[in-house]
Every structure is written in structure tokens, then in C-alpha cells.
């Protein structure tokens, strides 16, 4: 079995185990803390799942390094070798307020190149994954490639800050050229919407490496684009203003932005 195949089997198993922990925790009361703001939350489950995942990765792949949201990973200064990106619960605010619309996400990169990406919609029991060069799958079934639609032909997904902060007024104009705006509150699930062809772009003002890395593998696998707002490459060591989109909409969004 190749290393990629071994990782694939284990990641799928570990993600399902994480979901089981989340299911079991439904019976207990969540411990919720604020991070950078009153709407930036972390729960005991975010921490427990990241700790479990990082322990499992380290036991099987001791040479690899980990970039995780809740601090159980390594302090990365570069992307050399094999790097795992772990977001234990993507959409924590949804997890706390809605008990749905959140995902467990894992990405694996080799020397900065995305090799494997996994996004598990826990409540819908849908595990999306991509292995570079092998297509995108949902629960093991190939996902049909989404259509390359233009900005004016589809819906645009975004995050709350783009809608509420004046510094992003330009993006509201771009969204205004689309058929309409949609917002789910989970970067991973927005990326799945793009893969399914339900939206033609997802624009978010402040995404971290673990928000971007798993979905980037999938979006690039279907030939779509991932970049910073100005069209430059995303930096997986820092936060990014990020666009995920069809090729047609990408050109329109970046051109509108550089005017
Ligand atoms: P999280 O739930 O893992 O923190 C919400 O718009 C989306 O943006 C979620 O995917 C969320 O991931 C992500 N996000 C990134 N930075 C955030 C922040 N500072 N506060 C809230 N959500 C953030
Ligand atoms: Ca968070
Ligand atoms: Ca996240
Ligand atoms: Ca998270």
C-alpha cells in the first residue's frame, strides 16, 4: 500500500471516529470559550478532536508536521516535507448555535503541494475527499465536475465580515453582479457548495491555513481557482483574504478588484 493509500484509509477512519465523539458529546453540556471576539468561539470538543487527531497522526507518521487550529500541532515556519492541516470543527459557531452545518477537515500537503483533502459534513454524513490526480468523491462515489459558470450566471457565497464591514464594499459590488449571495458559516461547507455547482464562488476575508488547505485540493482537482483577493497564491503559513471560484468567475472577480 502506498503512503497516500495508507493515509487515505486512516484519515477516513479517524474522521468517522471524530464524528462519533461529537455524537456522544450531544448528551453532555459543551464548554464554550471566546477566542478573539464574542463570535469567535472554541469548545471542549474542538480541542478534544484536534488532540485526538494529532495524537493519531503522530503515532502513525512521526516524521510529519501538523498545522492545527487549536494549538496541538507544530509551530510551522515553512511547508517542507509532509504537512497535515487539521480543522477539528469548521463552523464552531454553527456547532454551538445550530448543532449542524459544521465539518471536520483534514488536508495533507507535500512540500507545499496539496495531495489529499477531506471535508466531512458530520450531520449529513457526507465525506468529500480528493486525492491529487484522482478526482473528487463523496462517500466513495465520484462527484460530477461542476460547470464553469460566470459571475452573472450563479450564486456567490461569502462570510459575514464581507457583508458587514465597509472596508469590503468592493466585494459587495462584485456579489451584486451575481444572481445572489448565500452564507453558511463554514468555509469547508461553502467549498462543497462550489464543488456541487450550487455557488460559483466563495469569498472570505480572513481564512487560516486549516480553513483553506483541505478544500484547495478539491477545488484544484476540478480545475477551479483558489487565490488571495488580488489574484496571488494563498500563503498556507498565514491568514488570507481568499477566493475559491470557477475559472470564469475568478477572472471577473480579480479584474473587478484590481480596477
Ligand atoms: P471555524 O469555525 O473553524 O473557526 C465562518 O465564516 C468560517 O470562517 C468558518 O469556517 C470559520 O472557521 C472561519 N473563520 C476563520 N477565522 C475566523 C474567526 N476569527 N472567527 C470566526 N470564524 C472564523
Ligand atoms: Ca475557530
Ligand atoms: Ca475553520
Ligand atoms: Ca475550527
Detailed description of the structure:
Mg(2+) 2 binds at residue 90. Its cofactor is Mg(2+). Pfam families: Inositol_P. With 259 residues, the chain is of the alpha+beta class. The protein folds into 2 domains: 3-142, Fructose-1,6-Bisphosphatase, subunit A, domain 1 (Fructose-1,6-Bisphosphatase, Chain A, domain 1); 151-258, 3-Layer(aba) Sandwich (D-Maltodextrin-Binding Protein, domain 2), CATH 3.40.190. The chain has helices at residues 3-25, 44-60, 92-97, 160-164, 169-176, 187-196, 209-221, 247-258; strands at 32-34, 41-43, 65-68, 82-90, 103-110, 113-121, 126-131, 136-138, 141-142, 155-158, 180-182, 201-207, 225-228, 240-245. The strands form 3 sheets. The chain has a 7-stranded mixed beta sheet with strand order 3-4-5-6-7-8-9, with helices on both faces. The radius of gyration is 17 Å and the shape is globular. Adenosine-2'-monophosphate is lined by residues 36, 40, 69, 87, 90-92, 159, 185-187, 206-208, 211. Residues 42, 69, 92 line the site of one calcium ion.
Amino acid at each position: 500500500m502506498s503512503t497516500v493509500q495508507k493515509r487515505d484509509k486512516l484519515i477516513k477512519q479517524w474522521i468517522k471516529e471524530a464524528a462519533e465523539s461529537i455524537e456522544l458529546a450531544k448528551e453532555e453540556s459543551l464548554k464554550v470559550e471566546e477566542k478573539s471576539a464574542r463570535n469567535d468561539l472554541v469548545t471542549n470538543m474542538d480541542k478534544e478532536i484536534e488532540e485526538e487527531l494529532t495524537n493519531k497522526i503522530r503515532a502513525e507518521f512521526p516524521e510529519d508536521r501538523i498545522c492545527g487550529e487549536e494549538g496541538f500541532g507544530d509551530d510551522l515556519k515553512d511547508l517542507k516535507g509532509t504537512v497535515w492541516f487539521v480543522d477539528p470543527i469548521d463552523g464552531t459557531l454553527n456547532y454551538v448555535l445550530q448543532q449542524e452545518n459544521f465539518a471536520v477537515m483534514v488536508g495533507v500537503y507535500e512540500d507545499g503541494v496539496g495531495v489529499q483533502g477531506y471535508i466531512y459534513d458530520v450531520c449529513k454524513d457526507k465525506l468529500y475527499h480528493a486525492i491529487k490526480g484522482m478526482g473528487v468523491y463523496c462517500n466513495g462515489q465520484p462527484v460530477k465536475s461542476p460547470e464553469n459558470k460566470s459571475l452573472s450566471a450563479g450564486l456567490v457565497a461569502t462570510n459575514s465580515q464581507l457583508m458587514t464591514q465597509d472596508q469590503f464594499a468592493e466585494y459587495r459590488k462584485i456579489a451584486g453582479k451575481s444572481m445572489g449571495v448565500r452564507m453558511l458559516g463554514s468555509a469547508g461547507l461553502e467549498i462543497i457548495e462550489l464543488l456541487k455547482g450550487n455557488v460559483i464562488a466563495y469569498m472570505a476575508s480572513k481564512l487560516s491555513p486549516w480553513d483553506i488547505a483541505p478544500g484547495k485540493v478539491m477545488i484544484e482537482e476540478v480545475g477551479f481557482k483558489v487565490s488571495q483577493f488580488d489574484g496571488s497564491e494563498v500563503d498556507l503559513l498565514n491568514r488570507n483574504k481568499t477566493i475559491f471560484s470557477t475559472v470564469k468567475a475568478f477572472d471577473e472577480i480579480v479584474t473587478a478588484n484590481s480596477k
